[in-house]
């Protein structure tokens, strides 16, 4: 049945609006980083900032445990129940309850680590400040707003909360000892956003409450493939950051992080493409539509890498200064991950999820994680060079593409 032109235009407008607001948020965050990062890195120094990035990597493991992959399948249910507030309340309550169930063991393990590992205990307050973002993400169900095609709310809340933190950073951050204060300001702003989102949902008539464990079991089952996928992906990135810290030191963690920040600048324009298109293509995942989207994504990925090669050097000098110029070759290598990230994201969101091949997504991330660790291990055995870590991560991205192409052919879907 042909979709009426006015309805089709309305859908296209909503997709564009979602993409626009998500992109505005990314641009805003990037611009704020351009202002704040040079100030912070010069005040606290690369060593202290490296400790902060290393702590973020550790806390991110707990974040992925508590998120448990609920977001994507829950957003899909919201897409199918946009007019049913009672159903929406139940979905929000189920995810809210499930994440709190996972928070309890996470807190126990985190507490043991805080007092059992000297390198963590020595920065106890810093780790506690960063852990605030874990609970903030429980309170802020951005997946719900994505499913409702209402990313305007997410954008406004996060921008306002981020703006409130800026004056505090410039007033209070003066020395390397202030890195904990910096973490508290940043993550306090994230927590404020989560509280604001929860209040807004309650104001809109959505009742979020704890429900029985039995009622959460179907959500755990649906989310398990996504959890395994997210875990593998987080281990891939987090372990590489951890390896850099353990093998090369905290200063090199800061350099590696700066390279990733350079790559994130063009990525901010691209990372929301699949998110914005996800609800629309999910409702009508024709191979021709998917093929067209992925063709443009490949082109965007190539252009992004070229831009980083041309502009990466002055960007590194601007953000980190000449003392951190070693981040430039890392950024050039890591820029290739934009291409693989876009292409793989297209396969995952527009092929495997509509086909309900969730474990293909998990297997794909396992391929990425194992290949990155394998190539990283081989490289570091041959030569102690941080560039080899970036090369390993880049190769793993192209291994993901090969895996996705193989599984797509098995499904007899021609989008390559």
Question: Keywords for this structure?
Answer:
globular, mainly alpha, 416 residues
Descriptive account of the structure:
This protein has 416 residues and is mostly helical. The protein contains 16 helices and no strands. Helix 1 runs parallel beside helix 3, helix 1 packs across helix 7 and helix 9 (213-247) packs parallel to helix 15 (358-382). The longest helix is centred in the N-terminal third of the chain and has 63 residues, at 5-67. Residues 6-12 have low confidence and may be disordered.
Topology:
Blueprint: H1 5-67, H2 71-80, H3 85-116, H4 118-121, H5 124-139, H6 142-147, H7 151-172, H8 179-203, H9 213-247, H10 250-270, H11 273-283, H12 287-320, H13 327-334, H14 336-352, H15 358-382, H16 387-410
Helix pairs in contact: 1-3, 1-5, 1-7, 1-9, 1-10, 1-11, 2-9, 3-5, 3-9, 5-8, 7-8, 9-10, 9-15, 10-12, 10-13, 11-14, 12-13, 12-14, 13-16, 14-16, 15-16
Low-confidence stretches: 6-12
Elements, N to C (H/E): HHHHHHHHHHHHHHHH
* Strand percentage: under 5%
The helical percent reads over 70%
The helix tally amounts to 16
- Secondary structure class reads mainly alpha
Average pLDDT figure = 85
Major pleated sheet: none
Radius of gyration: 21 Å
Q: Specify the overall morphology.
A: globular
What is the end-to-end distance? 27 Å
Number of strand segments: 0
């Amino acid at each position: 049945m042909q979709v009426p032109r006015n309805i089709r235009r309305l859908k296209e407008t909503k997709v564009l609006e979602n993409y626009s607001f998500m992109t505005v948020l990314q641009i805003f965050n990037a611009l704020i980083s351009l202002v704040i990062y040079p100030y912070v890195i010069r005040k606290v120094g690369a060593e202290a900032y490296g400790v902060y990035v290393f702590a973020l990597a550790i806390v991110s493991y707990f974040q992925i445990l508590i998120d448990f992959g609920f977001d994507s399948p829950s957003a899909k249910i919201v897409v199918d129940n946009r007019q049913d507030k009672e159903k929406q309340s139940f979905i929000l309550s189920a995810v809210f309850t499930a994440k709190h169930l996972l928070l309890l063991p996470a807190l126990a393990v985190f507490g043991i680590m805080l007092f059992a590992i000297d390198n963590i205990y020595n920065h106890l307050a810093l780790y506690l400040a960063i852990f605030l973002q874990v609970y903030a993400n429980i309170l802020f169900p951005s997946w719900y707003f994505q499913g409702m095609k209402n990313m305007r709310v997410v954008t406004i809340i996060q921008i306002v909360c981020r703006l409130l933190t800026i004056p505090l950073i410039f007033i209070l951050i003066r020395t390397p000892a202030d890195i904990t204060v910096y973490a508290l300001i940043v993550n306090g702003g994230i927590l404020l956003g989560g509280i604001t989102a929860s209040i807004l949902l309650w104001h809109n008539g959505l009742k979020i409450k704890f429900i029985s464990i039995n009622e959460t079991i179907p959500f755990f089952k649906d989310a398990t493939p996504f959890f395994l996928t997210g875990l593998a992906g987080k281990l891939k990135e987090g372990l590489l950051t951890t390896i850099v810290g353990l093998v090369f030191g905290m200063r090199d963690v800061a350099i590696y992080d700066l390279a990733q920040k350079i790559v994130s600048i063009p990525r901010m324009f691209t990372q929301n493409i699949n998110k914005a298109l996800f609800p629309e293509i999910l409702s009508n995942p024709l191979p021709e539509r998917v093929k067209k989207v992925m063709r443009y994504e490949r082109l965007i990925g190539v252009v992004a890498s070229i831009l980083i090669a041309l502009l990466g050097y002055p960007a590194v000098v601007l953000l980190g200064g000449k003392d951190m110029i070693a981040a430039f070759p890392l950024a050039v290598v890591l820029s290739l991950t934009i291409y693989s990230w876009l292409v793989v994201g297209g396969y995952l969101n527009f092929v495997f999820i509509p086909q309900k091949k969730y474990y293909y997504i998990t297997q794909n991330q396992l391929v990425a994680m194992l290949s990155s660790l394998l190539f990283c291990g081989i490289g570091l055995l041959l030569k102690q060079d941080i560039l080899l870590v970036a090369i390993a991560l880049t190769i793993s991205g192209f291994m993901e593409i090969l895996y996705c192409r193989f599984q797509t052919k098995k499904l007899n879907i021609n989008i390559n």
